[in-house]
UniProtKB/TrEMBL annotation:
Record's keyword terms, sorted: Hydrolase
Protein name in UniProt: Sortase
NCBIfam families linked: class_F_sortase
InterPro entries found in the cross-reference section: Sortase, Sortase_dom-sf, Sortase_F
CDD domains: Sortase_F (cd05829)
Taxonomic placement: Bacteria, Bacillati, Actinomycetota, Actinomycetes, Kitasatosporales
Length: 208
């Protein structure tokens, strides 16, 4: 996907696993039209942004994800580094920390050589599901999913996904869309979420 100066292209979409069930390929689940923005946005009230603090762990109860978060930098070609191992996920360390004001980016594999990986079930998320990020400051930032959409690489909406936000927002991204045995997945699944609450120590308010 192109970055248009907003964020370097992600490098987590070289899917290498495709199970053959007879003549029919088995591919990761895709979000339904009911979870797209066009069908309406989830309306949980937004919590005030938190002070910046690096994330250490991510949980998505709906799809049984509980994974450490590695800090991701840039590869030599300007793309986002790939998390090590299919069970790992990472956050873009050159951008917003989850829970702080702006748009934070988390990425992970949909599969690896051994089968389904950490975000295989991302496309099954529903509006209103929770995404929890435990941070170094001891605060757990609790996000509400607003929408889940899938985009082909040549139509990826950079500004919609990566653009600046007034509040604290989160994007969780993995591979998706059609699979090409030569080049991998031809798109991305993106879960959009906003900060709806916090658990843990009372954070210092962020001034507007």
């Amino acid at each position: 996907m192109k970055s248009n100066g907003l964020l370097p292209a992600l490098a987590v979409c070289a899917g290498v696993w495709l199970v053959q069930n007879g003549a029919r390929p088995v591919t990761p689940p895709a979000p339904s039209a009911a979870e797209a923005f066009a069908a309406g946005r989830h309306t949980d009230a937004a919590a005030p942004p938190l002070p910046p603090s690096p994330p250490v762990r991510l949980r998505i109860p709906r799809i049984a994800v509980d994974t450490p978060l590695a800090r991701l930098g840039l590869a030599a070609d300007g793309s986002l580094e790939v998390p090590s191992g299919g069970g790992a996920a990472g956050w873009y360390g050159g951008g917003t920390t989850p829970g702080a004001r702006g748009t934070a980016i988390v990425a992970g594999h949909v599969d690896d050589a051994d089968g389904p990986a950490v975000f295989y079930g991302l496309g099954t998320l529903k509006k209103g599901n929770r995404v929890e990020v435990l941070r170094e400051d001891g605060v757990t930032a609790v996000f509400t999913v607003d929408a889940v959409e899938v985009y082909e690489n040549d139509a990826f909406p950079d500004r919609k996904v990566y653009g600046a936000a007034r509040g604290a927002e989160l994007r969780v991204i993995t591979c998706g869309g059609p699979f090409d045995p030569r080049t991998g997945y031809r798109g991305n699944v993106v879960a959009f979420a906003h900060l709806a609450g916090v658990r843990g120590p009372v954070p210092v308010p962020v001034r507007s």
